Amino acid sequence: MKGRNISFGVGIDIGGTFTDIVLLNHEGTLVTRKVSSTPEDYSRGIITGLKEVFSKHGLSGENISVALHACTVATNAVLEHTGAVTGLITTRGFRDVLEIRRFRMPEMFNYHWEKPEPLVPRERRLEVEESIDLEGNILCPLNIEGTKDVIQRLAAKGVESIAISLLNSYANPLHEQKIGELVKKMYPDLLVNCSSELVPVIKEYERTSEVVVNAYVRPVVIKYMSKFARVLKDVGIKAPLLIMQSSGGMMRVEESMRTPFKIIECGPAAGVVGCHHLAEKLGLPNVLTLDMGGTTTKASIIENHEISRASAYEVGAGISMSSRLSAGGGYVIRVASIDIAEIGAGGGSKIWIDVGKALHIGPMSAGAVPGPVCYGLGGEDPTLTDANLVLGYINPEYLAGGTVRLYLARARKAIETRVAKPLNISSVEEVAYGSHMIATSNMVRAVRAVSTVRGRDPRDFILVAYGGAGPIHAALLARELGIKRIIVPPSPGVFSSLGLLFANMEHRVTRPFYHLLNETGLADTANKTWQSLESEVMTEVEEAEYKDVEVDLERFVEARYHGQSSELTIPLPWYPVKTEHIPLLDKSFTDEHLKTYAHKREGEPIELVNIGLAAKIRSRLSPAVETIKPAVSIQEMAMPRGSRKAYFGKYYGWLDTPILNLESLTHDPRKGPAVIELYDATVVVPPFCTFSAGEWGTISIELEKEINHGRS
């Protein structure tokens, strides 16, 4: 593989525990590397990983043609309240819209629930005198002198970023534009964020929330991305840098620093994009995705070959069923995103007992430092990784391809002293297995949040399990949900990084379009709006300097029944839209409403609220993706063999379990138990499953049809 003429794309995904690096060239050759994350300075882990890959394979930064990245920096800034000092300028009378919110409670019967504190406190939320009606007519001109005074007051409070959200600015952005110009003229160093530019749609609370989130995280993201770009240059990478969006498309790094609200959920999105590509390769229309890393577990759904998307979501809302149904638990982001449910359960999640002697897993995590007790880096609280090590699922000599050594005795002692003895349980393995089952039960909630809550039966889907810990828990989780088949993708431990290489560039725009579906002349009005959006999107594509590319345009509407407050996104396969297409759109909306909410309103007027367009540019690595060679062929490490004892609950007890690698699998099904050790992950196959090598470097696991035993 050595040579100056070999060109690779590199995908880099930074997690709370590990940093994953994947290189793919135009011949489909895959190189992977997994290194410990360095939370005090994430760039250290990136540099270490890239240098190790370059040194081992005779490459350099000159071999990289494009760099793709997903991160959690924006998410963490919101969750940990470590964003910039931010100010908000709004219309007189709407200063408190961030606190009033939508009068929704994610925990209906919790009388002690407290709504999240606004990211901008009241003293930095100031009003200006102006008024525009819903049709864009100016009722009261902007008070320029009063606005200057407001800007000066915010600057005196030390703000770094200013959010501007005026009532009905989506219909006429003039006043927001004037305020933005004044800020730039008076204080050139302040960052300006206008709602009419970022999210020009109705609903003043959602629009204000989003522009505030953007303003809050923007200085943090600018600092992070600037440093990340410098790190790449330090290792000789001069290639373009692209960033994953929450929608599953890529964007230029410059755009991510202007609109960071689009990358809040970019990390989990990459893995779902990878699953979608894998499902297409394998001919699987309906798939549930499960991504379990060191800190969190993420679940999503692919139905009828389409990734499930949401037009809005809440960051920091948690994962309870009620929070996803009634909302109100987090900060609203009004942007297209992949529908992902996330919980605080990962390999590093701590095992603990409360005052009532109940056993819990997470959401607190040991992270990369000090990490689980078995890492030997000073951790004292037992974690899920410690439990899985005690159960015999993890090889103490072969984590991350043997680069991380684990200490079994320390893990056993920590579980015994901190959990087993306080609970008066003599068996350490029973506590470990109980922890394993509780963690799996928590993960079931995440899968149900994207399936059952949306009216989908998990039994009709195939589970794709990835992440460093996902394939360890997948079989038990599938049993609880009644899922019959599991697919473990190639390089599962770094699959999210691989997903970056599958993703296309994407530009998405949405505009208000308030019309009834049965309105006369609707088709012509919609076509004219789409023509305008297409012109806007293509201008962005040209400004991005894409040469000789094929652009796919996808059109959609956001619709609801009359009187509803939330919308469903409906794709439009027909263009231009004709009058005869309107009944088909009616049926598409009705069918989606029935699937999502389990009912439909016959004869109820349907309202179109927003109209949108997404331009997608195929990845430069697409040809390579079609011929990808699994990473196992180029991992020059001693692969595990033999057997060891593994514990599968009281019914099965300790079993002699074959230890296999990917190359030893065949297409002929074998009965469990087995542990399949890969460079970047471990696959646990319990006794109630069969397994075999699948297509495209995958592992296929089938559950027995009737399982009436072994649940403890």
From TrEMBL:
Q: What is the lineage of its organism?
A: Bacteria, Pseudomonadati, Nitrospinota/Tectimicrobiota group, Candidatus Tectimicrobiota
Record protein name field: Hydantoinase/oxoprolinase family protein
Q: Where is the Hydantoinase A/oxoprolinase domain?
A: 207-508
Using the record, list the residue span of the signal peptide; answer none if the entry has no such feature.
none
Q: Name one GO molecular function term.
A: 5-oxoprolinase (ATP-hydrolyzing) activity
Q: Which PANTHER family match?
A: 5-OXOPROLINASE RELATED, HYPOTHETICAL 5-OXOPROLINASE (EUROFUNG)-RELATED
A GO cellular component annotation here is: cytosol
Can you give the residue ranges of the Hydantoinase/oxoprolinase N-terminal domain? 10-186
InterPro entries the record matches: ACX-like_C, ATPase_NBD, Hydant_A_N, Hydantoinase_A, Oxoprolinase-like
Acetophenone carboxylase-like C-terminal domain location: 523-687
Q: Which domain of life is it from?
A: Bacteria
Instruction: Give GO terms for biological process.
Output: glutathione metabolic process
